[in-house]
Amino acid sequence: MSLPPQPLSPLDGRYRPAVSALGEFLSEAGLNRARVTVEIEWLIYLTEHEFAGSARLTPAQIESLLSLATSFGQPEIDQLAALEATTRHDVKAVEYLVRDRLEQLGLTSTAELTHFAATSEDINNLSYALTIRDAVTGVWMPALRLVIEELRRQAVLYRDDPMLARTHGQPATPTTMGKELAVFVYRLERIVTQISATSYLAKFSGATGTFAAHLAADDSLDWPHVSEEFVTSLGLTWNPLTTQIESHDWQAELYAQIAHANRVLHNLCTDIWTYISLGYFTQIPVAGATGSSTMPHKINPIRFENAEANLELSSALLDSLAQTLVTSRLQRDLTDSSTQRNIGVALGHSLLALDNIRGGLDQISLNRALLAADLDDNWEILGEAIQTVVRAEITAGRSSISDPYALLKELTRGKKIGQADLIAFVEGLDIGAAAKARLVALTPATYTGLASTLVDYIATPPAGSAD
Predict the structure, then answer these.
(1) Which end of the chain, N or C, is less surrounded by CB atoms within 10 Å?
(2) Which domains does the chain have, with CATH numbers?
(3) Which residues are known to be catalytic?
């Protein structure tokens, strides 16, 4: 017995609640709604300029036409499916849908301005630019900013909590948990700034980007100006030099930046996972949740692990999109047609990861006692401070030690030493009394430099970050 129809992608099945907002823009229906919008806006533009003697539409007629896009829903989706079954061409089906609405309004004489002098890619590239822009700025970016704001909150909260650092996995100069989280805030905010500056390019220049049909219809108009005015009226950036397609370079740039954000987030997940493994973060139990099917004591860091997997999938898809979309054979091939239908999948996996990260960050708590114990068990890390102070004392003429690095290497390398050992060693050093006093007073927990102060660089969200 066969199963009833099932979603093939987990984004449309198991994970749909986390990513459904993207479907408003990057689904087939979202794309068709944008196509309808572009076709109608172009027709309205032509009639407003009374092209070829066409009559201006009344405000009521314009409102009724635009409602085809603003109220686009299941009836229009079904009608387009029926039209495409006959036309075997998705954009032609959209054109016929608009023509049908014109006939309903008694505007048959205006119908020939539908899709006038436009190739399918004129409609498609504008539609993709609109839907990608709205999906990124209206869905994906707000989700990223929520993660950044939670990281910022925790960075400020934990700014003064000293923590043993680990370079190459080995004990190293202490930091604070807040400063380490602040690093990720700073990295992600740079990428947000870059993505926010994206120019969503579009063209509207005919079959090979030459305005040939436009000029044949009316050689008195400045068609590049008309094209630019129309494209920019939709809130997009005009591209004057293209083939049949807009070259997609802006898409490649955008996807590279989103993939970069994914990889920074992946780094965040592996770090948080490691902190949980070390016990630096404890996970807050969720009532009723099962951590392991056989080991009831476990709370697995599954949100961060799931996020890692989805970030990897998203980045792989975004890399493929960026690579494929920048090439089109001669003036046009259809490789981009199938490729661009996967933009929603690529962003969907990233959005799902952001949802997981946010949930994971909400379920961790800093284990200050373990952080303190770990620091107290690693007094040898103060070797860096001691040899640096000795170097300064030698330079100032207050010490005759010849090789401070070797001296500290002999004391600390591969060894565990305690506070008493270190104090005794410092007391025997040939350095000034003030320097000696500073070193004797130093502990692993206080050897954090300016870590707490550095959090100030991200303590306040940048202006406009909530837009």
Answers:
(1) N
(2) 17-116 (1.10.275.10), 125-205+237-366 (1.20.200.10), 379-443 (1.10.40.30)
(3) 168, 292
